[in-house]
Amino acid sequence: MTTPDQTRTAEVDPLVLTAPAAAGQRVGAFAVDVLPPLALLAIAAVMFAIGQAALGWIAALLAVAAVAAALAMLARTGRSPGGIAAGTRTVDRLTGAAPGTSLLAALFTGRLRQCDLRRGRDPFAPALAPFVFPEPEAAPVTPARGGMRGVAPVVQLDSGQRFSLDSALVLGRNPSAPRDAPSAVYQWADLSRTLSKSHARLEWDGQLVWVTDLASTNGTALRTGGAAQPLLPYQRTPLPPDAVLELGDRVVTVKVAA
């Protein structure tokens, strides 16, 4: 008998097993990022004061470039030069990902967390050991005699293709299935290049659809209540009926018959 708990999507803390950076690390990272631009600005002020305007402008532009480069690194990877020196990574508390284009908004709203990579898990690393798929001969579970398996769900891509999920399916730009986890594959053309070669695996066990992100570059997320909940790599997660998945910038809808 299926209970409501079995169909509820797992709520996962993206910062599980991470360690917050110590005060000394935060101060050290800040100093490494801020002191060089401040020194360049001081040099620029001196140059302007002694009448060397050209050298002053060069020093000022170098200071601005240093700040811009540090912010770009922090937004893209969560690690500025100071973070690299201090052994920390700065991520969004809600997603465990680099802040990206929302860096300044996250900074002023307190949504950022600086993690110590020497004492805890890197937020970018999987929180769990890779999922081991069952041996081929033990994968399907035969229903009890007289029972009926549900009608296979329908997978619909945002490009219009529809599939019946009769067996496991791997989606990606150029997907492949390992020998110990055989499945059908679908090569999904993606000009945006946000899909990985083997991005995600969908499985139907007769009652529930399961999704597994295959350590994709841009991640897999489940839309719930208008928000997108990122999935951890290699964590096999059950889907609710009529689930909507985001694979990079692409959208997949999985409809389960009543």
UniProtKB/TrEMBL annotation:
Keywords, A to Z? Membrane, Phosphoprotein, Transmembrane, Transmembrane helix
Entry's PROSITE patterns? Answer: FHA_DOMAIN
Spans through the membrane: 27-50, 56-75
Q: Which residues form the FHA domain?
A: 169-222
Q: Which domain of life is it from?
A: Bacteria
Record bears the keyword Aminoacyl-tRNA synthetase: no
UniProt xrefs under Pfam families: FHA
Q: InterPro entries from the entry?
A: FHA_dom, SMAD_FHA_dom_sf
Q: Kindly indicate where the leader peptide sits in this chain.
A: none
- Annotated protein name in UniProt: FHA domain-containing protein
Source organism of this protein record? Microbacterium arthrosphaerae
